[in-house]
């Protein structure tokens, strides 16, 4: 069963965020005051999520190539169009996870469980699309295709646990910095 736990805050959040903290209060078009991440915090968070996601995806692709395909990917492959799309694929996971659970007081297990679900969904779509391409091109689905698909699912499972931990750590850091003096 998926964990639906939400941490209760120890104290009520202050009505005005710490001016040195990671958030700021802004007025919307309708005149409502909302708290959002400051520009610097949002930029740092985006860089953190992209590095974690892209780096883990490139590492996973490198490991799958060595272990399953018995080929070593060099810098030429990892910094090519292939590497770009793998990095983009990986960067999507933690970014979507952040959008799903930010600032809601979720536990680490919620972040990891949700990251696993996001990652497995992404890899499932990738494997299905890749399999359809091989069938359309006339190669058919072979044992090698199934092994590669299983390796992609396992690698994504490992990546997604890392995504969950990284996003949870960022969420906790922002929550702690918000209430610190």
Describe the structure.
Strands 1-2 form a two-stranded antiparallel sheet. A hairpin with a 5-residue loop joins strand 1 and strand 2 (33-37). It is mostly helical. The protein has one domain (23-179). Helix content is 66%, strand content 6%. It has helices at 39-67, 75-78, 81-101, 108-136, 143-179; strands at 23-27, 33-37. It contains 5 helices and 2 strands; from the N terminus they run E-E-H-H-H-H-H.
Shape: elongated
Helix/strand-derived category reads: mainly alpha
Fraction of helical residues? 55-70%
C-alpha Rg, in Å? 20 Å
The description of the largest β-sheet is: 2 strands, antiparallel
Distance between the termini: 38 Å
Count the domains: 1
Percentage beta strand: 5-15%
Adjacency order of strands in the biggest sheet: 1-2
The total strand number stands at 2
Which regions have little confidence, pLDDT < 50, spanning 5+ residues?
A: none
The helix tally amounts to: 5
Average pLDDT, all residues: 84
H/E order of the elements? EEHHHHH
């Amino acid at each position: 069963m998926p964990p639906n736990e939400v941490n209760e805050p120890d104290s009520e959040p202050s009505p005005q965020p710490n001016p040195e903290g990671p958030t700021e209060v802004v007025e919307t078009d309708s005149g409502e005051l909302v708290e959002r991440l400051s520009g610097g915090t949002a930029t740092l968070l985006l860089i953190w999520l992209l590095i974690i996601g892209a780096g883990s995806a490139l590492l996973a692709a490198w490991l799958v190539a060595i272990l399953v395909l018995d080929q070593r990917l060099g810098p030429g492959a990892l910094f090519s169009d292939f590497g770009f799309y793998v990095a983009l694929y990986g960067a999507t996971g933690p970014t979507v996870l952040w959008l799903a659970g930010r600032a809601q007081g979720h536990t680490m297990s919620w972040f990891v469980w949700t990251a696993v679900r996001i990652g497995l969904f992404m890899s499932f779509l990738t494997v299905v699309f890749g399999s359809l391409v091989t069938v359309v091109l006339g190669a058919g689905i072979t044992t090698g295709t199934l092994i590669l698909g299983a390796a992609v699912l396992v690698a994504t499972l490992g990546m997604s646990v890392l995504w969950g931990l990284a996003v949870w750590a960022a969420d906790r850091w922002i929550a702690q910095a918000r209430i610190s003096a």
